[in-house]
């Protein structure tokens, strides 16, 4: 699992971005990933552990699984 910090999350729109501690590009996180993990929201600065996958439709990298660190 990778780890990082929530850079931005908009609960109204249901998406945000995580800044990986590795220095890689920010990773998109959608509300569906949170729902699968039983997480009800994220706040800027939250520490998280996550895995990523490529979205087959867009080809972009997004969070697949997530947990609060």
TrEMBL record:
<dbReference type="InterPro" id="IPR011129">
    <property type="entry name" value="CSD"/>
</dbReference>
<dbReference type="InterPro" id="IPR019844">
    <property type="entry name" value="CSD_CS"/>
</dbReference>
<keyword id="KW-0238">DNA-binding</keyword>
<feature type="domain" description="CSD">
    <location>
        <begin position="1"/>
        <end position="67"/>
    </location>
</feature>
<dbReference type="InterPro" id="IPR002059">
    <property type="entry name" value="CSP_DNA-bd"/>
</dbReference>
<keyword id="KW-0804">Transcription</keyword>
<dbReference type="InterPro" id="IPR012156">
    <property type="entry name" value="Cold_shock_CspA"/>
</dbReference>
<keyword id="KW-0963">Cytoplasm</keyword>
<keyword id="KW-0010">Activator</keyword>
<dbReference type="GO" id="GO:0005829">
    <property type="term" value="C:cytosol"/>
</dbReference>
<protein>
    <submittedName>
        <fullName>Cold-shock protein</fullName>
    </submittedName>
</protein>
<keyword id="KW-0805">Transcription regulation</keyword>
<dbReference type="InterPro" id="IPR012340">
    <property type="entry name" value="NA-bd_OB-fold"/>
</dbReference>
<dbReference type="Pfam" id="PF00313">
    <property type="entry name" value="CSD"/>
</dbReference>
<dbReference type="GO" id="GO:0003677">
    <property type="term" value="F:DNA binding"/>
</dbReference>
């Amino acid at each position: 699992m990778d780890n990082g910090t929530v850079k931005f999350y908009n609960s109204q729109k249901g998406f945000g971005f995580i800044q990986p501690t590795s220095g890689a590009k920010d990773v998109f996180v959608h509300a569906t990933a949170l729902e699968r993990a039983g997480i009800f929201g994220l706040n800027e600065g939250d520490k998280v552990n996550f895995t990523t996958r490529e979205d087959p439709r867009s080809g972009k990298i997004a969070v697949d699984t997530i947990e609060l660190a």
